[in-house]
Amino acid sequence: MRVLSVLVLLAIFGANQVSAGVVTSNVIFGTGVTNGSFTVAQAGGVELGLRAKLRYNAAGNPENTFNEIGPGKYAFDPGVAPTQPATRGVWSYEWSINSDFDGTSGFKLDDLTYSLSMTSTNGASLAASDIINQFPFNPFADHAIGNSSTAEGAGTVANLFNYNNLIANNTLAQNSWRADLYANNYDPTLTGTYTYTLSAFHNGNQVVSTSIDVLVGVVPEPTSLMIFSSMIGMMIVPFRHRRK
Questions:
Q1: Which pTM was predicted?
Q2: Structural domain includes residue 230
Q3: Reduced to 3 states, what is the DSSP secondary structure of residue 225?
């Protein structure tokens, strides 16, 4: 395992090496949260999206900074977030579930079951949970809920009294969660790779699944070394040529 800062990692891979994935049709939670940089999977009329995000910058505020370094890969530095408790890192992850993104499935949110889980290389984990139907998410979760026509930031924030009605009559749910939320053995100061997997099922059969890797102070192997070596080679060759 090799440790490298996010600035160097982005220089090697490029901040936007792959096309940013957008979810259908907007990010409906929060204020001023932009669409893009999601790792999106679509099948059977169902769409799932995951991404990682800079939750706390130097001033302790969120940014639309996603540090996407390749397909399904995001990079952040380890450490406790500025102005925050010792359990919080600088990054968070965001998920989107659209049970009928193109109008072909006919599913409402509660017609499907779901699984969100996380494993890591440093001992942190998130047990597989149905983040729509399973306690503690049901009967209450503060998901933003709407449908494919809901405007940016205009999702209805669920509460104890309206949650079941919302998931029975809508197709889109989204949220943004800190890495420590619901996780076991999470330590923001540790390096490691966090793999999040989100899946949707109908009658016990998987419809679609997506996953991301969040690299915290870690260079992916072996691809990173190959790219890094090629970049060094490109810098050395012109230098040698000029000396002749």
A1: 0.84
A2: no
A3: helix
